[in-house]
Amino acid sequence: MGKQATEMLKGVLEGIVLAMLSLRPAYGYEITAGLRDQGFRDIAEGTIYALLLRIEQRQLVDVEKAPSEKGPPRKVYTLNAQGQEYLDEFWRTWSFLTERLEELRDGGK
Fold it and tell me: Which of the 8 DSSP states describes residue 73?
């Protein structure tokens, strides 16, 4: 991924992770692996864990500890009602921005 794509991704990564959690609960490594499967190969686990801490502190997710076969219990993140409201706003903003960008690309039509 180039520098421009990396910078753009930083602005929407939170929305992407919340969208993933709207599909099903997950723990940090699952989220990172899912992003990599979607083509976001340069995502560092540390970036995702820092983001998860921020959305947990903002109470956008519920967190539950689940036993792990290897090592300490995992924190499993579930999108809660407040997180769903935030995600809904993200999608409204995304739609607005993509419509304006497409208009610009098409010469203002």
Answer: P
Among 61, 48, 38, smallest CA distance to 13 is for 48
Token digits of residue 30: 């699952």
Low-confidence residues in the chain, pLDDT < 70: 1, 109
What percentage of the chain's residues is helix, strand, coil (to nearest 5)?
A: 65, 15, 25
Fold of 3-105: Arc Repressor Mutant, subunit A (1.10.10)
Q: What is the CA radius of gyration of the chain?
A: 16
Give the number of other Cβ atoms within 10 Å of residue 38's Cβ: 11
The whole model's pTM is what?
A: 0.90
